[in-house]
Amino acid sequence: MHQQVNLYQPVFRRQQKVFSAVTLSQILGAVLLLLLTLLGHAHWSLAELKTTRASLQEQFDQVQQALVALGSASAGADTRVLDAEIAQLQDTLDNRRLLLQQFDRIALDNTGGFAAGFETLARRDMAGLWLTGVSFDEHGGIELRGVALDPRLIPRYLQLLARQPELSGQRFDSVIIRRPAETEPAVEFLLQNQQAREVR
After folding, report:
1. What's the predicted TM-score (pTM) here?
2. Is the pLDDT of residue 115 over 60?
């Protein structure tokens, strides 16, 4: 007695699993580890900023106490020398206050830091063109100094930077190119955006 079996029925087809439970748990574990690493780095950076701020605040308080002590000691004495010391301490106090304000603004406004910009510049190299100096500031100013073997490489480099999402919105308003010596083929260049020029 013979019986025919149709092997093309859905029951006999092997069902492919897109992701197994083990694979999904590994992906979830990797994502969780990445998030914990980012959280730890942010916490560590914030702790460093708080420590620096506390140190600046302590210096500020010491200068303020010295100023108050000098003010009370100057009653009835020859005040020319004391006035000069008070003026000097007042200048130091104003500088510390300004430094504290700038530090708070950097800590609040620039929580991402400048690492992404530096990393982008490090990855986007171009043969025949080298950066000799990079400057970022808290106001959004960027200044790039470098050397190029051929001046035509500089516009190409600017186009390359314009396509980077980390530098989106940055526009170099000032491009200065100069040749150090007439006999040399290489040129030096300076790229600045408007914020960097205003700060300077």
Report:
1. 0.41
2. yes
